[in-house]
Amino acid sequence: MRKWLVTLALAVLAPAVPVFAADAATPRLESNAVLVVDQQEGIPLYGKNSNAIMPIASITKLMTAVVVLDANQPLEEELAVTYDDLDFVKGTRSRLGVGTLLTRGEMLKLALMASENRAASALGRHYPGGLPAFVAAMNRKARDLGMTNTHFVDSTGLNPENVSTAADLVKLVEAGYRHRVIREFTTSDSHYVSVEDGARNRILAFNNSNGLVRQGNWEIGLSKTGYISEAGRCLVMQALIGDKPVIIVLLDSWGKLSRMADANRIKQWLEVQMGVRETIQVASVRPTAHGVRVSRVIRSRHDSRRIRTRRM
Q: Superfamily for 2-275?
């Protein structure tokens, strides 16, 4: 573990460039900060502004989960949503009304899978010493992991003062991946909970906030999304691409779907470098008012479908 962190720390100090062949086309990504790391070796494969400190939104909930699980708090214990869990920072809404009772395990799953803010708030409040002690534990854990450019102020990520870097978040993903519960909860497609609604119970359905989990063409081992206006769209994942386990961090992507598109571009790019996917032809080259537009077609060696890549 220490060797892996040292390798990563030394690598992110170097210029953020891909480690593959110099003539290989690199992906053009919309996210403002990016880091892709070979999980086994701790070697960055691609980087962009990986040491820039910025808000991380609900990626914060991944640290929330690590602290809860490290404390060995019983997952079967029931927790209540209270007035203190309402969001007065961003004004977000929730289907978990005041008085809702769910087990800690269910709260944890909703916070990770569906990015449920009241669930994450309740997890922090039900820590020994309350939310202040919980946030202190989050920051201690960050220091223990060597996340030197990270700071937390709440358990939800709604406050833009929850900040980190892509390089630091690789370490958090690695720590989260060691917990079976986090791997399982973050990669579930959906979850149903039963809540009291007057004299009857109501079933609520929650879906994974990362659409890539439900697509079926990814082997994702851990996933967490995040969004507030100050942070843009964020995504962290552990995934198996080809035969290589990688960690992907995408921060401050402003298009609604651009973080998912960036992840797919990274996947296709890595598959080309690994020989799993190959560029087979240039479909067209034509001039435009803004230069030359090139459309390329690529095909996976294990998939006969054609996938059209970006235009340059």
A: DD-peptidase/beta-lactamase superfamily (3.40.710.10)
